[in-house]
Structure formats: structure tokens, C-alpha cells
Amino acid sequence: MRLYLVLFLAIFLRVADSKAELPEASYYKGTLGKSTIIWMKLYESLDPKNKGVIEGSYYYQKYKMPILLEGKSKDKQTLVLEENGGVGVFNLQSTSKADLSGTWKKFDKKGLEVKLEKTKLNAFLDATALSSQRLETEYKRTCDSDGKTPSVRLIREPDLNGDSIEELSIACEAACGATGNCPYVFYLSHGKNLFSYAGDASGVGRIAQKEKHYGMPDLNVHWKGGCAGMEGTGTILEFDGSEYRDTGKHYKCDCDAAKQKNRSKYCPKDGSF
What we know:
The protein is mostly beta strands. The chain folds into two domains: 3-126, Lipocalin (Beta Barrel); 129-262, no CATH class. Helices cover 11% and strands 45% of the residues. The strands form three sheets. The chain has an eight-stranded antiparallel beta barrel with strand order 1-2-3-4-5-6-7-8. The chain has a four-stranded antiparallel beta sheet with strand order 9-10-11-12. The longest helix is centred in the middle third of the chain and has 12 residues, at 132-143. Residues 1-20 have low confidence and may be disordered.
């Protein structure tokens, strides 16, 4: 059976809850090479600008850090997924059981065999969750260019999933701007002192909204501009069962007083966010 009939239809399945508008993602566990265990999540981009694009992430079980993926189907037979930064590329095809197999290739080196079997969301979350201490250590390694100056901003966020445990946001200080905008990575609590990757976005902050998906509030992420904070842009993120995703709901806050009557309800009212 062709890939798009197996993988793509699985991604487009919707749950019965009318509030859960996002298509379900597909989760996989398998091997890269002879014995390296990896986990993968795949879904179709919901941003209208990325129609037909497949996004997701994969994790080496040993490190449990997300490596973002993006790609498209090739001739409706092969799914080609490129790692963020172009380090490696997956070429995958479906099997009769809706599993995936193929190769992973790094630059011009010989490809390694990949075998992936579909798995459940809870198994995926259990396998990829990390402690806050481990997260800080891993992101210090990523953020610190000189290996000496601490540059990780670890922020405790209000509880979103109702387990009475604060969530986490992580940012590299060196990437933050003068206006306070930073690229953040979100992590949701997953048991005692464990956190699972829940997406990323850039801005000065995140505000929970009344609207919910999969029992989780949507998030308003705002990128602060000029005009004493009244100008800027923003994105409304929706939860898909394991992470927050950009669904193409973007807004713009203009500084022109003549346009204030049409100002989005998500824009700052007094320049603060």
C-alpha cells in the first residue's frame, strides 16, 4: 500500500471530541543502524503556508533530546525528512502494517538502515521525558558557545495540565533580544520531576487562553515590537496531545492609532504582556 494511504490517513484521523480539532500524530519506536533505539513523532503541518509538509521530531533513547524534522512525500511512495540544520536525512517507506522502514543518511556518508514500528502516545512520552536537572545540563551544552558562561534561562511556568506541577520553558540567553524576545522550548510535566518536550516558539511570553484542545488551554505567544510595546506579532498555539503546534492562527498588532479599532483581541492592551 502506498505511503500516503498508510501514514497520511493515520495522521488525518480525528478523535471524537469536537474540541480536539487537531489531527492525531503518529508515534514510532525503532532502530537506526544495528541497535541504536530511536523514537519518532510525525504529523502534517497545519500552517496554510506549509501545505503538504510533514513535520515532527525524533529522539535517540540514550539522549532524549528532540531533533526536529521536516519534509514531504516523494512520488507518494517515499517520505523524505530532513533534520533541522540539514545534518541528516530520512528516506522512509511504509510496510503492510503501517510501520516504516528505510535509511538515514548523514551528509555524503553511507546510509544506515531504519526500522520503525507504530507505538502509543504514552509509551512515547514515557521514553522521551527528562528531569529538570538533565534538561538544564543538556541545554547548557547546546547554548554555551564558550563552555564557560552559563547562558540557559530555565523558567517555571504555571501548571497547564492540572497535575499541580509547574511546567518549564527553556531559552538560550545569547539568542534573546533587547526587547525581551527569546526563542523558547516548552516542556510539560510528566510525573514527578520529569518533563516531556511540548513544542517551541519565540516571543516575550505565553498566556493561556480559554479555548482548549485535548484538555489543554491554547497559548498566545507574542513577539514584542516597538511603540512602547503596543506593536508586535503573535501566534496562537494549540495542543495536539503531546505538544503545542502552530496552526496558522497569527495576528499583528499595529502602532497606528487609526487602526486600533480593528486591533486583535490577542494584542497587548497597554504595551505589557
